[in-house]
Design brief:
alpha+beta, Chorismate lyase, two-stranded antiparallel ribbon
């Protein structure tokens, strides 16, 4: 049996998906939800608070709680697995793996990964879907020195981001966001029109002392104490989101 606060969340989601509540519609108050579902006000408050944190609802101080913009929202302040984001909204996650290969590092990729030009690196392209609709095109390059078994992993079972954070825990990240019109092949993979704008997120991730056990034998001799105490570049990813289906945001307190 589901916890009562999840039942409330599911009821509100159903009302939104059925069109009974649209973006801007006011949601019943904590007291009203508590009476409707026969629960405590605290339980109703938890349901609303979680949906606000997930970007589904928004609060206006002194006025009430409203259905937010219908596009899913990703936090700008933390890095989450796209699978976790989708499943936390109560939706179904699937993906399509387009590329999983070893390729020589171009000048640009070598610079981003802080390696020599032409050195073999791992490359993956994965399209992530929410309820079977593409919401992210992930083009990722990984330094094999830290993750030698990257190409052997089942990214249907776990996302690349989740796996990398397990073997090389995130310590820093470079992060930029811009609006772009994508190439034809990316538009086709995202099932959007060629000129439809997208959000492009460029992200380079670092790990302090990425696990030495992740390095292959030929590179173990290169790992020194200073290397393990520094921030190593683990991956460089470019993520494309259809602007009509996705947005970025977060809650700040001062």
């Amino acid at each position: 049996m589901q916890p009562r606060y999840r039942v409330i969340k599911a009821a509100i989601l159903d009302a939104i998906e059925d069109g009974e509540m649209k973006p801007g519609s006011q949601v019943p108050s904590e007291n009203q939800l508590a009476q409707q579902h026969g629960v405590s006000r605290m339980t109703a408050r938890r349901a609303l608070s979680e949906m606000v944190d997930e970007g589904i609802l928004m609060r206006s101080q002194g006025i009430g709680t409203f259905v937010s913009d219908s596009r899913p929202m990703s936090s700008m302040l933390e890095i989450k697995s796209i699978r976790d984001e989708i499943e936390q909204r109560g939706h179904r996650y699937t993906n399509e793996i387009l590329v999983l290969e070893t390729a020589p590092a171009s000048n640009a990729i070598a610079q981003r990964l802080a390696i020599d030009v032409g050195k073999p690196v791992f490359h993956s392209i994965i399209v992530h879907c929410e309820n079977n609709l593409p919401v992210q095109y992930e083009d990722r390059w990984v330094n094999p020195m830290w993750v030698e078994d990257y190409l052997d992993k089942d990214f249907k079972a776990q996302t690349a981001n989740f796996y990398l954070n397990q073997v090389a825990p995130l310590s820093q990240a470079d992060h930029s966001v811009e609006a772009v019109v994508v190439e034809k092949d990316i538009a086709q993979a995202l099932l959007i029109k060629p000129k439809e704008p997208c959000l492009k997120i460029t992200r380079r991730t670092f790990s302090r002392g990425a696990l030495a056990s992740g390095a292959n034998n030929s590179d173990r001799s290169l790992i020194t104490k200073s290397t393990l105490n520094s921030n190593a570049v683990v991956s460089h990813a470019v993520l494309y989101h259809p602007g009509s289906r996705y947005r970025l945001g977060g809650h700040l307190e001062f």
